[in-house]
Amino acid sequence: MTVVLPEFGEAPERSRGRNVRAGYQRGRGLRSGDLVSQLHQDKLYNKAMKLARKRTIVAEPKRLNLYLILRFGFEGLAPGHIVEFGSYRGGNALFMAAVCRELHPGMQVYAFDTFEGMPATDPQRDAHRAGDFKDAGYEELLQLIEKEKIDNLHLVRGLFEDTAEAALKAISSVRLNHIDCDIYSAVKYSYNVSEKYMVDGGYWVFDDPLCSGCIGAMEAVEETLIQRDGRFAEQVYPHLVYRNWPPN
User: Fold this and answer.
1) What is the predicted pLDDT for the residue at 170?
2) DSSP labels for 34-75?
């Protein structure tokens, strides 16, 4: 089936470091019209979802939006790979790897997580506590990756501060960073460590800052992307999306 994005011809393609038209096409398209029903009939989306269904807690509108970025959002960007900070049971990473295997041969997906639960959190900011999400099932995930021959998915196990610098240096360039961390320190670090590797026009997609239990995640976005770096969001529904273009 051919998926058709809605048109928003009045919106500019580039303004303040974002593609306003693309943001409206995805965000408003997922809120109204028939875009969601189109995606529910899309063979590749459904094929990738079979791998993810029992291993992801990413809300469906957010996963649909990621699919739209993977399918329509990379045209004109320099080569690069996908990183995900905060993968829990690996379902969303499996989903993105399955999509990329068909749409973007050679593109790799790197899933960063302790796979043993959350590290220490800040009780002044975060609702989550150390050890949350500890039922990641790391060995089971490895077995599934081997069974399904998902050879473009790589698990990077450990604290971000211990693994990310060396891994990103080897990865070299990033087109999309999906940050699904929930807490202030992890969101801030995941953005900062990836910034110098992001291709021009690349995406930061934040799963949690607008969630009711993730004020710390929003504070990290406010401090780094908004206040320090002067970035403007390309989307606020179903989650926050920023692009790596100069703000002005």
Assistant:
1) 98
2) THHHHHHT-HHHHHHHHHHTTT----HHHHHHHHHHHHHS-T
Here the tokens at position 169 are: 């240096």
Pairing of strands 198-206, 240-243: antiparallel
- The Cα 113–Cα 84 span in angstroms is 9
Report the DSSP beta bridge partners of residue 82.
Answer: 109, 176
Sign of the CA dihedral running 123, 191, 233, 69: negative
Structure pTM?
A: 0.95
CA separation for the pair 110, 219 (Å, rounded) = 25
Structural domain spans, the chain: 20-243
Residues forming beta bridges with residue 180, ordered by sequence position? none
3-class secondary-structure state, position 196: helix
Residue 106 amino acid letter: G
Q: What is the mean pLDDT of each run of 10 residues along the chain (248 residues)?
A: 84 92 96 94 96 91 98 97 95 97 97 91 87 84 94 97 98 98 96 98 97 95 98 97 92
Alpha carbon distances (Å) from 227 to 185, 203, 209, 239 = 16, 18, 15, 19
20-243 has CATH 3.40.50.300 classification: no
